[in-house]
Amino acid sequence: MENAPAAGENIAVLRKSRGLGQAKLARAMGISLSYLSKIELGQRPVTPPIAASAAKALRVTTARIYGQPFATPIEEDAHLNELRLAVRRHTLPSEDTPPLDQLAEDLRTAAQLRADTKYLELLRILPRVLGQATATAMDAGGDAVAWGQVADLYGCAYAVAHRLGQPDLADMIVSRQAWAAQQTWNPTAEAATAWNLAGTFQSAGQYDEGLAIVERAISQYEAAGGNGPEHVVTLGSLHLRGVVLASRNRDEHATDDHLRHAKRLAGKLGERSDFLRHNLTFGAGNTALYELAAHIELDRPDRAVQMSEPLMEHPPAGLAASRLGRLCIDGARAALAVHDLGGAERWLNRGFEIAPQMTEVHPMSREVLRVLFVMHQRSRPDLLAMAKRSGLTS
Question: Which runs of E-coded beta strand occur in 185-279?
């Protein structure tokens, strides 16, 4: 019935192709034999730490475990190829320098599309706007603002490549973002680049290395000095990236340390809505979402459910669809972990309402959907509709 292999199926196929028994692979992954069996049968989701341990044991990438890139209705190869070409010719933009007011409007549009998780619409304009912004920055010499705009656009491009399951393209984009940030001394642009660079290690399941990048970036950004909302948003966002990496690495001490710093910084912003700067969102609301996700990664689903239930009725004010969509996915993960299948389905339905393109392709929303199917939920119309939208069934 399903069109695309599940992550558990991919693990089973790779294991068998290497002549490994389940017991040997389970030992290499650090999990029980029964847990691996349930993963391969689709009765348990392949979480990011599980995907990382399987990838290491089977000597493949985490993208291979999840079956990325997904063959979904929203993937458009032609536009992805145009973006690849624009990224490849980063020093040779073919576009002319546009009027500054037009460029400013295009930059605002790109940032809003990213925040709204409208990845296809963003993908269609990125090659042109990226080329125009680069041409403008080159004409402006070492102007910090112009090169900071180029770095921000590469941040948007990273979001598209990451969400559409294109890890190689995401890696190349981050290197271009670093190049743009280094054209002039711009600590905030460099810190935002480090945030995305750590994200590439996070996606690859290399949590130790990602943490090292975050901690180095925090030290460098603090040494550069600064104050005001932009400084707090950037530094707080780095700590939130640290929360994810540390929790997936099962390092409770580092998780708590980064979370404590994030809460302290969020307190400086007061009770207002979260701030968005350089494609980074930070404040008390987003910090709560990261804390919820950390409880899931650290096998505390009861605490995650306790946090998520009031957030479903009253989500943090001011958060973009990109963050609320992730809340829905993590809410579904928490509900599934405590065997609340109906709750998991409700969270996913909300995710498809708020951030459909993200929910269609996010590996964990797909994993929750697969497990719900296996757990005798196939006859539920809403679940079937979501599975069809994600390309999991015809």
Answer: 275-277
Q: Where along the chain do its domains lie?
A: 7-66, 71-179, 186-295, 300-394
Nearest to 203 by CA among 76, 323, 362, 30: 362
Q: Are strands 280-282 and 275-277 parallel, antiparallel or unpaired?
A: antiparallel
Q: How far apart are CA 284 and CA 265, in angstroms?
A: 9
Q: Which residue has the tokens 């660079």?
A: 197
What is the spatial distance between Cα 334 and Cα 289, in angstroms, rounded to a whole number?
Answer: 12
CA 12 to CA 307: how far, in whole Å? 35
pLDDT in tens, 271-308: 777 998 999 999 999 999 999 999 999 999 999 999 99
**Cβ atoms 235, 190 nearer than 8 A:** no
Q: Which tokens sit at 14?
A: 């790779």
Please tell me the distance from the alpha carbon of residue 186 to that of residue 147, in angstroms, as a whole number.
Answer: 9
Q: Which residues contact 223 (CB under 8 A, 6 or more apart)?
A: none
Among 387, 278, 325, 336, which residue's Cα sits nearest to residue 116? Answer: 325
What is the third-level CATH fold of 300-394? Answer: 1.25.40
Burial of 394 (0-12, 13-18, 19+ CB in 10 A): exposed
Query: Would you say 163 and 115 are in contact if contact means Cβ atoms under 8 Å apart?
Result: no
Q: Which of 3, 55, 64 lies closest to 25, judged by CA?
A: 55
Tens digit of each residue's pLDDT (9 = 90 or more) over 313-371: 899 888 999 999 999 999 999 999 999 999 999 999 999 999 999 999 999 999 999 99
How do residues 32-86 score in pLDDT, each as one tens digit?
Answer: 999 999 999 999 999 999 999 999 999 999 999 998 876 544 557 889 999 999 9
Mean pLDDT, the chain, integer: 93
Architecture of domain 7-66: Orthogonal Bundle (1.10)
Answer whether 7-66 and 300-394 agree in fold: no
The candidate with the shortest Cα–Cα distance to 198, out of 185, 213, 208, 184, is 213
* pLDDT at residue number 3: 60
| Cβ neighbours of residue 248 closer than 8 Å, sequence gap 6 or more | 48, 49, 52, 202, 205, 207, 297
Q: Do residues 228 and 193 make contact, with C-beta atoms less than 8 angstroms apart?
A: no
- Cβ-contact 383, 345 below 8 angstroms: yes
Name the token pair of 39.
Answer: 């993963």
